[in-house]
Task: inverse folding
């Protein structure tokens, strides 16, 4: 059985067994992420993978899984104890301003800038910030690049905001195309492979001749991209169709 919509998935949940497949994202609410693990335990094959769907939903999980690709001292914070431990590390590394990222907020809405980690810690102590979240050093003069990889197609564009530190396009940023450097593509494909992403929107952070992973998602707006919505959808459909054919040939 190949399932292509969420209504069928949940209607036939008790019929799913090894060899069945789900094509398309499983639509779940915050707190229902365990359903993906349950579906995987039933033997359901998923496109996109359950891992990539979980990672797309959680900045905190990305900070755990992709720590080696992110700026040094980027950490997930689950408790006051975690944050308290970070205070010493940030102090020893002479890190001043820091950024926090709320777990499920997108489009720059969950990003906050703090003068130092003590200021962030104070707000947590007074109950003004919910766990979990991500903390990382604020990088001065950081440049932001969005890379889209889908099948054999890839493109990149810079995102800049002269009026603030959030480079998201609907937060005041502007875009301009960039020629894809093979190093960026190789780096991004390694991230995708580790997270089992069949396609992705990847944000890279550039500073002092280095670049790091900002975050990765299975989907994202195409504002600023050269590819049309219809062409993008057709590339995604090709990947989904190839997956479906591979299942029927088993």
Result:
């Amino acid at each position: 059985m190949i399932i292509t919509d969420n209504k069928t998935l949940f209607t036939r949940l008790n019929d799913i067994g090894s060899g069945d497949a789900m094509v398309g994202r499983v639509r779940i609410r915050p707190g229902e992420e365990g359903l993906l693990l349950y579906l995987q335990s039933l033997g359901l094959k998923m496109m996109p993978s359950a891992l990539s769907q979980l990672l797309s939903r959680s900045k905190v999980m990305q900070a755990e899984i992709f720590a080696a690709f992110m700026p040094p001292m980027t950490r997930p914070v689950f408790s006051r104890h975690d944050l308290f431990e970070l205070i010493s590390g940030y102090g020893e590394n002479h890190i001043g301003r820091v950024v926090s990222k709320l777990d499920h907020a997108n489009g720059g809405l969950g990003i906050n800038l703090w003068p130092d980690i003590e200021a962030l810690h104070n707000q947590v102590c007074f109950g003004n910030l919910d766990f979990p979240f991500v903390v990382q050093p604020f990088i001065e003069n950081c440049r932001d690049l969005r890379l889209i990889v889908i099948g054999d197609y890839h493109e990149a564009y810079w995102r800049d905001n002269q009026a603030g530190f959030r480079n998201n396009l609907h937060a005041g940023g502007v875009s301009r195309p960039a020629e894809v450097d093979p190093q960026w593509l190789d780096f991004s494909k390694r991230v995708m492979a580790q997270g089992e992403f069949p396609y992705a929107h990847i944000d890279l952070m550039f500073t002092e001749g280095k670049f790091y992973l900002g975050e990765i998602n299975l989907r994202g707006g195409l504002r600023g991209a050269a590819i049309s919505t219809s062409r993008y959808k057709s590339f995604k459909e090709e990947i989904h169709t190839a997956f479906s054919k591979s299942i029927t040939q088993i």
About this structure: The mean pLDDT is 90.
